[in-house]
Amino acid sequence: MAPVFPLAKLAFLFVKQVARPLSSSIRRKAVRSHFFKEKLCLPPARFYHWCEVRMKMYVMNLGRTGQSSTIPRLSEEAAIELGANLLGEGVIFGIAVAILAYEVSRQKEKEKKKEEAEQAFINNLETRINELTFSSEELDTKVRELTRLSYALQSQLKTKEVPAQ
């Protein structure tokens, strides 16, 4: 179990390294496309900024008063960068979740096949036990029949051997 932590660290580093080029390509796309910028990059970035500032104010005990404090808007450049980073990491996270879901379903299928094989083995054993029980009962019946016949023959022999007086 020792190599688990370094592997997790390596996986985290890999995700960060893959997310960087993805977020840069998203950032370039957001700068060129108005729709991409306005609908996909800026709303999550502004919402994230709002939640982050609100949480910091709450932790510093600034947001608990009855006053409504305004949160300064994020500049468009910073919002585009933050939104691109969020989307890049979201895509990486989505891919990781899809891989994990695939692995879970594959493991469940493997476990199901294993259980089916075990059940088939148990059914085969039960069938063989039933067949052996039937064969044993059949042999017992034949032994009883042969025993009855041998007693009958013995009694016939005794009656024939007895001299007539």
UniProtKB/TrEMBL annotation:
Alphabetical keyword list: Coiled coil
InterPro entries: OPA3-like
Pfam families reported for this sequence: OPA3
Biological process annotations from GO: regulation of lipid metabolic process
Keyword Coiled coil belongs to the record: yes
GO CC, alphabetical: mitochondrion
Family membership: Belongs to the OPA3 family.
Protein's UniProt name: OPA3-like protein
Origin species: Cherax quadricarinatus (Australian red claw crayfish)
